[in-house]
Amino acid sequence: MSRITRRNFVFSVGALSAATSVLSWPALGQAKATGGRVVVIGGGFGGATCAKYLRRLSTDIEVTLVERDSNFMTCPFSNAVLGGLYDMDFNTHDYSALRDEYGVRVVHDSAVDIDPDAKKVRLAGGSTLKFDRLVVSPGIDLQWNAIEGYDEAASAVMPHAWKAGEQTTTLRKQLEAMSDGGVVIIAAPPNPFRCPPGPYERASLIAHYLKQHKPRSKIQILDANPTFSKQPLFEQGGQALYPGMIEWVGEADGGAIDGVDVKAMTVKPLFGEPQRGDVINVIPPQKAGAIAEVAGLTNDGGWCPVDQRTFESRAQKHVHVIGDAAIANPMPKSGYAASSQGKVCATAIAASLSGQDMPDPSYVNTCYSLVGPDYGISVAAVYRLGEDGIAAVQGAGGVSPKDVDSSFRVAESRYAVGWYQSITADIWG
Ligand code: FAD
């Protein structure tokens, strides 16, 4: 099926996570603001957290959350849906608590333009919202046609499933319809992209499903990167749970693809022969959500430079960008990181609206990945602001140990579920 020479057999999962975010400023209440209007665009991990925590800091701040969808479906645990462990109800959250318990004004509409000088946001529905501070947390958009032939229409045939919802369901149905002995291709994009362990967790949980229902099938990961997040742990887990089922082709061996043919159901590696798959999951290169670009918040790479103390945009005063759209290296583009940034940003805005200095922030990320339902692995990090921006605190956090007995992996798989339940309750509950 290909001329790719070296094949590494992997097995496992990656996902993200950890429980609640660390807020290291002295106390949330110290930054109490006396008023002001804040508009937040995007009700995902970053935006919904920021909106809620602004109201927790001060009920005098009017907070309007603009979110195009009435329910939010999380990408975390969407790989578990693909693996048949959960259905999409598990991943779906609404905005009633933000609205009814925290007094956030929730507007279901799309922001189509931002006038930073007039401090206004224009909505697709025709109305305009005025703000004193604006938070932009639109997540990612996909770079259509960065891979030749891969546009929005092609994603109906070769789903990306990198935004949870209909795309997740489409990919799941394709897996269910595939015959035993079929080949699933997962094409992973070059860094930076949303959820660095996501493609490998996906391969692992799809393998979990195939092992039970279509055990002669194979998964091939074509990777534009030379290495990947938690690689030794994923490989060890994959070998333990799905021996021979998952093949990883790294960048050096032709893993990067530059074209697709939806009719032939092939992907074209940068070098080597086209690869045919029965189910093809193309995860294309990414950039900040479109509204960030429209508002002039992005750099040439498509991401948003920010002051990492406050997440205020380097391009527009009084406009803050958090989550996947922001440049917050070395924090990964994860839901946990977005939520942690949402809390820091809420504090910075509350401090600024009340004329106080922003305390020194700290930030946190934990990332659980499920290699199988009873096999979890994780990585965690704590960050502080250094002279050159956000920096990991040495000795804080780390990855799961490699050689442990199965009870350790079982415990981490339970922590992964606990992480999900606690962070979603913290944000939308
Ligand atoms: P999002 O959460 O995507 O929220 C953006 C919101 O903005 C959306 O609701 C969108 O509708 C809205 N929006 C965008 N533009 C507009 C507009 N113009 N007007 C109105 N609304 C708008 N992270 C983890 O921490 N742990 C995990 O286990 C994990 N697993 C993952 C698994 C997969 C398969 C994937 C793809 C990702 C995973 N992630 C995980 C990453 C996580 O989903 C993202 O990092 C996180 O959602 C980023 O938060 P955000 O606020 O930047 O964007």
Sketch the major β-sheet.
5 strands, mixed
Bound molecules: flavin-adenine dinucleotide
In terms of DSSP E residues, the strand content is 25-35%
Number of strands: 23
Distance between the ends: 49 Å
> What ranges have pLDDT less than 50 throughout 5 or more consecutive residues?
1-31
Number of helices: 9
Mean pLDDT: 92
Radius of gyration, taken over Cα atoms and rounded to an integer in Å: 21 Å
**Large-scale geometry:** globular
Relative helix content: 25-40%
The chain-level structural class is: alpha/beta
| Largest sheet, spatial ordering of strands | 1-14-13-12-18
Spell out the blueprint of helices and strands.
Blueprint: E1 8-10, E2 37-41, H1 45-57, E3 62-66, E4 71-73, H2 78-82, E5 92-94, H3 96-100, E6 105-107, E7 111-115, E8 120-123, E9 128-130, E10 133-136, E11 140-142, H4 166-177, E12 183-188, H5 198-213, E13 218-223, H6 231-241, E14 246-249, E15 257-261, E16 266-269, E17 275-276, E18 279-282, E19 286-288, H7 290-294, E20 319-321, H8 335-353, E21 362-372, E22 375-386, E23 389-399, H9 406-428
Parallel strand pairs: 2-3, 2-10, 3-6, 10-20, 12-13, 12-18, 13-14
Antiparallel strand pairs: 1-14, 4-5, 7-8, 8-9, 11-19, 15-16, 16-17, 21-22, 22-23
Helix pairs in contact: 1-8, 1-9
The structure holds flavin-adenine dinucleotide.
